[in-house]
Amino acid sequence: MSICVLRAQMLPCKTVLSWTRGTGNRCDIARLRKCGVCYVPNLSPVSFPSRTLSNLATAHSGLARREMAENEALSRRQKVLTIDTMNANIKKVEYAVRGPIVQRAVQIEKELKEGVKKPFNEVIKANIGDAHAMGQRPVTFFRQVLALCSYPELLDDDKFPEDTKYRAQRILKACGGSSIGAYTASQGIECVRQDVSRYIERRDGGVPCDPDNIYLTTGASDGIVTMLKLLTAGEGRTRTGVMIPIPQYPLYSAAIAELGAVQLNYYLDEDKCWGLDISELQRSLQAASKHCNPRVLCIINPGNPTGQVQSRERIEDVIRFAAKERLFLMADEVYQDNVYAEGCKFYSFKKVLYEMGPEYFNTVELASFHSTSKCYMGECGMRGGYMEVINMDSEVKAQLTKLVSVRLCPPVPGQALMALVTNSPQPGEPSHAQFLKERTATLGDLAQKAKLTEEILNTVPGIRCNPVQGAMYSFPQITLPERAIREAKEKGQAPDMFYCMKLLEETGICLVPGSGFGQKEGTYHFRMTILPPADKLKILLSKVKEFHQRFTKCYS
Amino acid sequence: MSICVLRAQMLPCKTVLSWTRGTGNRCDIARLRKCGVCYVPNLSPVSFPSRTLSNLATAHSGLARREMAENEALSRRQKVLTIDTMNANIKKVEYAVRGPIVQRAVQIEKELKEGVKKPFNEVIKANIGDAHAMGQRPVTFFRQVLALCSYPELLDDDKFPEDTKYRAQRILKACGGSSIGAYTASQGIECVRQDVSRYIERRDGGVPCDPDNIYLTTGASDGIVTMLKLLTAGEGRTRTGVMIPIPQYPLYSAAIAELGAVQLNYYLDEDKCWGLDISELQRSLQAASKHCNPRVLCIINPGNPTGQVQSRERIEDVIRFAAKERLFLMADEVYQDNVYAEGCKFYSFKKVLYEMGPEYFNTVELASFHSTSKCYMGECGMRGGYMEVINMDSEVKAQLTKLVSVRLCPPVPGQALMALVTNSPQPGEPSHAQFLKERTATLGDLAQKAKLTEEILNTVPGIRCNPVQGAMYSFPQITLPERAIREAKEKGQAPDMFYCMKLLEETGICLVPGSGFGQKEGTYHFRMTILPPADKLKILLSKVKEFHQRFTKCYS
Question: Where on the tree of life does the source sit, at the highest rank (chains A, B) (predicted)?
């Protein structure tokens, strides 16, 4: 056995476990028992089965536990950075979309790989809007251009259509040394910002858009956090208050916690298809103004996790409210192409603002956000995005430009992708037909799956699902038996977390409990993406149905 | 002329200027004069010559200036987000590497394009370590694999060597849906973290590295800011103090300002080749402990902007100091392959820490940072990076993992690139010879240019340049005539900013003044990259020489 004892008594067992996990070497348990410490010098890339690890842990547990505890306590006392001395705001951050349930799902996947028997063969991650991971194919045109940008020697290759080459050459020409490996302007490549601004103008029926108001970002999240950062000021009762919908996408609550701003909840009306009510905005604002300075109103449209699409009239109401109450508007519009329900249409806040006339268009401050991760693209891994700022004070804008320059530039492949999304193949160009076919198929597919999800969920007694008008999620309400709620609370778990955890363990389906997004006291939900392929989605929904019935029966 | 008046009196002239700048349309000045407002509906991608813009501005200035001022004052009063109400910490952020001198350089480039006559034909940006922009060619192997990952249909193509295909397939297999468009684990793709950890073990002669301690990042900057964020706590006299070298890379001062931590300067000794002196660390710490809680010690090795390479002994001293004073060590090691001077060698903090024995290796907390942007890669635009954390408290590590999950994942092309950098072609693999040739050529080239820069600069009376032992920059001291210093101060400019600005205007060479990095009171420097191609670098250096002589004469 390739094991040697190194400076006995020095390295705690935990370190050994962690090293051996990394190196894949077995550990001499007898020696470990004796001295409590050792290390493995031969580093080979075999992975270490978790069962062996747990045997190892058990073997240790008798003799070494006390020693480990002592070692840990000692090292805890000596550490500079501990849970008690770290940034307190970070501790308050929560992000359910990748929270404990997802960590458990990853663990279960590993167990399955190692041959642990489960009542299912695979984990289905319906927790996150990750289209490609769910089998959606990337758009050919995008990937051809990215390949050309990555390895320009391919520009001589006949396999690539002329319009992909033209796009790649245009992007490369705008890069230092004609390489996507060079830094770009911190605000983003100029010609990409021009593409974005022309896209916005087309989208909004000619409303002018200045490329100087476009900031390319590392996904929409980056833009949202940057704007909240600029807006957070004051102390105590003058601290910036940020109004967010409940249920919300937890990036908002996480960023607010990290920045030490004040989260102000306004509740969407589940009975009115997650509609937004101005009187509720008013209530939320009034309740807040005693203990902070409400300055920001965030809207997610189409809604995440709730899937509603705002009407034009409602957007006007919101804008009027923001103007009257002097709130900075942040419009999260990353699902702008994901509108499925009949009679629903996406209106950008910018367009509505413009059409409400100069009284609004010249005064209301707005930042809107878009991303390459959603819609028909689903290119989450590229971390592409942009924000457009309207009516931003020129001095603040200079500060924003300075702030983004510290991080040098957004990833260039993401910028290039944003150029392609906003300047996609046009009729007459060789890639147009295939591009259109792929986009239409993906969006049509999503529309069908939105309908399917709503329909099947609503056949389950105790599950009530609003129409999935847009975005990529259903957020049904679930009725939980009193006994389940009690048991969850005894375990210190949110009742819907208790439910989702059981669902995961029994079926392999990974959903996010409603408590991670916020919900009305006493109601319970889960968020489920509509992204799995239709046949898989059907199986998934029928498993959820069976589970819900079993769960209800078991706890009644 | 394609111009129409829209809602007269509503849109301030500034908006028009900014719109027309974006759209490239001409503006009807007479109309503008009359009503002060208008807008251009036809949006075409022609760019707007800045001379026309400045004519336009002049035309306006008489009649419209008052109106603009009124409009601006009005809109200022109404704005939610102003320079007075924004995040005060952001206002303190400075980032010289992309500061005013670079903005002016970009402006001059535009002027040259528009035909404005200058005493030079191009701007040479020696302000930033942007290798590809300076003509360095990307490594073929990296770009082939990236192209394959972007467009896996190319896996059937005979043009690509087998080892590029193998690497691409391995990365794709680790991605959800086999697409680099899927989100990855927030800490980074597991097999990439394994590659990184094996790379570190090889680099450090077998010192074990646990992939669980590796966090992939969006460039090194992301990791550095994330660590500083975790470490920032307390208020007033208990606020976290962060020791940084002076001169420093201004990401550090910027992040410290943004987080509201306390910047603690320790000065590098220019007379000892920018050496680090422990007594200076002690002085800095002592001075600080009255007004804050010093908890972090940042080291940049090889040095940026100063180019020195730390000896093994000095690193040991620093570690002993950190252990004694209970400081969290942050080692910025992004230039680890960029070591040129004879007798100099890169030692990682991790390796030295390990070899100092368990008394140190089990207690001293360390985070070290690396990047795909520097060394022989120069892939800045990909925003790839990693950090390794050593002896991090397990609860804090869980908080770190949670924190990075909010931003979902680092850009996947950057992660893929990091896998290639740390798992490069091996002897026997088809790409090995070319890879080695390219890497050797680039590093050899840099070594020559480091020598060349030092030698030529030291021929100039009034310029004194330490050996460029490593990294990518020279940071020579310049002697400025008293009269120049006075004139600069009268203008409210740092004297070396005054110098660099004149250099830019007269020669087109863009350098960063030493004041942007910090320097000993009364000394003046500039930072210049050694990246331009050798022939261009020679011209650049001779121009700097001429300029310095002219400047000295003129102000003597």
Answer: Eukaryota
Domain with CATH 3.90.1150.10 in chain B: 96-134+435-554
pLDDT in tens, B325-358: 999 999 999 999 999 999 999 999 999 999 999 9
pLDDT per residue over B93-123, tens digit each?
Answer: 888 777 789 889 999 999 999 999 999 999 9
User: CB-CB: which of A177, A377, A394 is closest to B134?
Assistant: A177
User: In terms of CATH architecture, what is A96-134+438-554?
Assistant: Alpha-Beta Complex (3.90)
Interface size A-B, in CB pairs within 8 Å, comes to 359
- Per-residue pLDDT band for B68 (boundaries 50, 70, 90) equals low
Calculate Rg over the CA atoms of chain A: 26
Which of 187-206 (A) contact B at CB < 8 A?
194, 197-198, 201, 206
A442 touches chain B (CB under 8 A): no
- Write the ipTM: 0.85
Amino acid (1-letter code) at residue B369: F
Q: B170 and B180 in contact (C-beta within 8 Å)?
A: no
DSSP B369: E
Find the DSSP H helices in A423-533. 432-457, 482-490, 495-507
Q: Which residue has the higher pLDDT, A3 or A545?
A: A545
CATH architecture of the domain covering B96-134+435-554: Alpha-Beta Complex (3.90)
CA distance B427 to B280: 46
| Residue A387, beta-bridge partner list | A215, A369
Q: Are B244 and B253 in contact (CB under 8 A)?
A: yes
Find residue A547's DSSP bridge partners. Answer: none
DSSP line for B173-204: HTSGGG-TTS---TT--HHHHHHHHHHHHHHT
**Residue of A539, A514, A368 whose CA lies nearest to A453:** A539
Rounded to two decimals, the pTM is 0.86
What's the confidence (pLDDT) of residue B407?
A: 86
